Amino acid sequence: MHFLSLVCFSLHYFYIVSFSNFVIFREEIGYDGWRLDFVRGFWGGYVKDYMDATKPYFSVGEYWDSLSYTYGEMDHNQDAHRQRIVDWISAAGGSAGAFDVTTKGILHSALDRCEYWRLSDQQGKPPGVLGWWPSRAVTFIENHDTGSTQGHWRFPHEKEMQGYAYTLTHPGTPSVFFDHIFSHYKTEIGALLSIRKRNGISCRSTVKIHKSERDVYAAIIDGKVAMKIGPGHFEPPSDSQKWKSAWEGRDYKIWEEAS
C-alpha cells in the first residue's frame, strides 16, 4: 500500500507561492503532490500553470459547493452540482482531480434515509463526478471537516463500511479517511483494498448498475467484481459466468468472478 504525501495550500497562500517554491516542496522535501484548498475561488486555468511547472504525481482540488434541495429534501438530479466541479477540472486542463463532493452527498443521503435509488442518475450511471469524469473524481466518505473532531457533516453512523464498499469497488480515485484506517474498520477496509487491487479496478473502470431501489444498490465493475450495499437482496447473474463470495459485512457484500 502506497501512501501519498500531499501538501495542502489554502487559497490565499496559493496566490503568493512561487513556482520555485512548489518545485522545492516537490523535489527537495519530497511531497508527491498538492491538495488545493477551496478552489471555488481560484480559476482552474491558474492551477494548470502550476501543475505544468511542477509535474506532481497527484493533485486534487477541494471544490466544495452546496447540493440542490427542494423544501429541505435533497433533489434526485444533482447534475448542476457535479457540472460545476467538472467545469473547474476542465478549466485546469484535467491536470488536477477534484474531491467528488457530489458522490459524498448523494451516498450520505442514500444510506442515511435508506434511499438507494439515489445512486443511479437518469442515464443509469453513478450520479456523482465519477459518473461523468471518473479519472478525475477523488471519492471519499469522510474528511477532517466532515468527521473527526469537527463533525460538520458526519457520515451515517455504523454505515461507513457500506460507503467504502461503494467507493473502493467503483472507478474514480478513492480516498480512505485517516481515522478509519486505525479504527475497528481496519480489517474490512484492507480486505476491500485487496479486492480492488487484485481485480485491477482503476479510476477508469466501467460500472453496470443492476439494482438501484429503495433498500439496495448493486453493480458489476469491469465484469469482474459484483457488489451490493443495503439491506435488500441481490445475487449477481450466473447465466454467463460464475461468481464467488469475496467479502461481506453489515449490509454489504462483494463477489469476484470465479476462475
Structural class: alpha/beta
Order of helices and strands: EHHEHEEEHEHEHEHHEEEEE
DSSP strand count: 13
Oligomer: single chain
Q: What do the pLDDT scores average to?
A: 88
Low-confidence spans: 9-16
As laid out across the biggest beta sheet, the strand order is 1-2-3-6-7-8
Helix and strand arrangement:
Blueprint (H helix, E strand, L loop, with lengths): L5 E4 L1 H6 L2 H11 L3 E4 L7 H11 L3 E4 L7 E2 L2 E2 L4 H13 L5 E3 L1 H13 L23 E3 L20 H8 L5 E2 L3 H4 L4 H13 L8 E6 L4 E5 L3 E5 L13 E7 L2 E6 L2
Parallel strand pairs: 1-2, 2-3, 3-6, 6-7, 7-8
Antiparallel strand pairs: 4-5, 9-10, 10-11, 11-13, 12-13
Which key terms come to mind for this protein?
6-stranded parallel β-sheet; alpha/beta; 20% strand; 259 residues; carbohydrate metabolism; 5-stranded antiparallel β-sheet
